[in-house]
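This part of the workshop introduces the protein records we will be handling. To make this concrete, we reproduce a full record directly below:
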Amino acid sequence: MELVEGITLKEYIAKKGRLAVREATSIAIQVSQGLEAAHNSGIIHRDVKPQNIIISTDGKVKVTDFGIARAATNNTISTAVMGSVHYTSPEQARGGYSDAKSDIYSLGITLYEMLTGHVPFDGESTVAIAIKHLQEEMKSPEIYVADLPRSTVQIIYKCTQKSPDRRYANMSELIRDLKESLVNPDGDFVQIASNAGGRTVVISKEELGAIKDGYNSARASQENIYHTVNPAENGAPGQRNSDRSISLAMIRTLMVWIPECMVIVAMIIRERILIRTELISTMRRMRTVF
């Protein structure tokens, strides 16, 4: 095991407030190269964050805590791993499959923090922050730093796409764009795939009218079915409409809360797994010492 003397990137950001574009890009390239080597060996970090990046006294950047990532098998969201939730990818927050693109997402969040001094998603609890990763659009880094180069902003956006398929395919592609941004900061070379096969789909007024007509027809059909199933209520339209409104309101509420409840349950389960893993790791270290 290598002993590295230096400070964490988190401490370095706190000390300087935010980093210059060239310095942040240089650090991101070194981190990407370290992660690329790990990915080529079949290792996914799953907990990339400034706290796990060390800047040595001679200026070299080191990525740490691979052992914890392997032991947990997933980036566990818990207060026991302080700060992880701010950098976790949507698929990890959801409890789904994570791969090299999850590390790319976390590195994009880290680059965002290096340049602005802020994380894009914050909240009162780990659950609230994780839900923001899943549902909310990221604040533009230009809100904090208005003169950021176009290419750097686009790199951050591509790294932090909600869908893994729209991020960089691998670290090699990210390193290529990061290096290009140093020599061509305002270039338009970062390609982000659209949600509609690479082009923007504009709905015409006629198409919009057809959609509305289809919706109205479907709604009318549902009402006819409702009247057929509940013929005794035909004499009380006011009560029937009121009951239907209450039912629709309940359905809408359930549609909003069920996904969030699933996220909360997944986090509770993973938090218990992390606590158990930490206890086992502590016991092993104690046996090594004594």
